[in-house]
Amino acid sequence: MSSPGAPLASSSLAAPPGPAGSLAVGDGHVLHWSQAGDAGGLPALVLHGGPGSGHSPALWRFFDPARYRVIGFDQRGCGRSTPRGETRHNTTAHLIADIEALRRHLGVDRWLVVGGSWGATLALAYACRHPGALSGLLLRGLFVPSPSELHGFFQGAAARHPEAWARFAAPAPADRRAQLLPWLTDLFAGDDVALQLRATLAWRAWEHALAGLPPPPEPTGDALQQALDRYRVMAHYLAHGCWIGAQQGAAGWGDAAGLAGLPIQFLHGSQDEVCRPAAARAVQQGLPGSRWCAVPGAGHDPFHPAMAAHMGQALAGFAAHGRFPDGLGRDEPGAPA
């Protein structure tokens, strides 16, 4: 899922922009990438959420630009990658191949991969398929695209937020509200743009409600079209369970045997209602040697002060020692090997 929080007003770790470019990856898709920090620093790839959201340089603020070479890109159909909103030739397998293509294009041997929400989902899937390309894995607010978690997001949370859910479901016909995801999938695959825009705004407001954030300002012009494109891609991925067998636990992401010995740190807000902690914890427990840290008081917002502090601490420790600090989830390791 996406992380709808607004960035902090300022940060001592905010990195100035550096080189940027584009990379054609086939099937008509062209990725936009950018980087910041020290060109000779520790390479770190930041994977954005969604699916569909696009990369935000605000996420660079967690990194020390004197130590890291921070790289981000817009996934297929997202942000400044083209064609925007395209769902053809756009699956998790395509994105994993794109990440490898970008790594080779930028001349990176191994990189720390950092992902939040859907970005954490993609990061883990990539790591399972290309473990030799990673120096570490930092997963914040892991999204588990299992049938039960998708039901929890689209239907189950209605009991806790009845008024917000009623607004979320309002664009759907009454007889489709008991199964919103299939209706949204059909809607965004069709051509009723006016109804798509209504559903886009309702979905966006629902995410903010679950994240404990105030209602977002209503976008206009191209920003509104960008939001529609974002939720078109999201509906496409969620309708297919993101092509991950998440109901199988950690095994659903792929063969994790190659991750043995790789530093893996999970950070999860204890109050996260967008991506529920219990589901992510179950995945973590299936990864021997990985570490779990529940961040007290934080929800899904990456810029919550407690979560931002934990992210900064984790990244500073990794830059200094090549591993995550023992104080982050020290007493909660993954299942024994």
TrEMBL record:
<dbReference type="GO" id="GO:0005737">
    <property type="term" value="C:cytoplasm"/>
</dbReference>
<dbReference type="InterPro" id="IPR029058">
    <property type="entry name" value="AB_hydrolase_fold"/>
</dbReference>
<protein>
    <recommendedName>
        <fullName>Proline iminopeptidase</fullName>
        <ecNumber>3.4.11.5</ecNumber>
    </recommendedName>
</protein>
<dbReference type="GO" id="GO:0004177">
    <property type="term" value="F:aminopeptidase activity"/>
</dbReference>
<dbReference type="InterPro" id="IPR002410">
    <property type="entry name" value="Peptidase_S33"/>
</dbReference>
<feature type="active site" description="Nucleophile">
    <location>
        <position position="117"/>
    </location>
</feature>
<keyword id="KW-0378">Hydrolase</keyword>
<dbReference type="Pfam" id="PF00561">
    <property type="entry name" value="Abhydrolase_1"/>
</dbReference>
<dbReference type="InterPro" id="IPR005944">
    <property type="entry name" value="Pro_iminopeptidase"/>
</dbReference>
<keyword id="KW-0645">Protease</keyword>
<feature type="region of interest" description="Disordered">
    <location>
        <begin position="1"/>
        <end position="20"/>
    </location>
</feature>
<keyword id="KW-0963">Cytoplasm</keyword>
<keyword id="KW-0031">Aminopeptidase</keyword>
<dbReference type="InterPro" id="IPR000073">
    <property type="entry name" value="AB_hydrolase_1"/>
</dbReference>
<dbReference type="GO" id="GO:0006508">
    <property type="term" value="P:proteolysis"/>
</dbReference>
<feature type="active site">
    <location>
        <position position="272"/>
    </location>
</feature>
<comment type="similarity">
    <text>Belongs to the peptidase S33 family.</text>
</comment>
<feature type="active site" description="Proton donor">
    <location>
        <position position="300"/>
    </location>
</feature>
<feature type="domain" description="AB hydrolase-1">
    <location>
        <begin position="45"/>
        <end position="303"/>
    </location>
</feature>
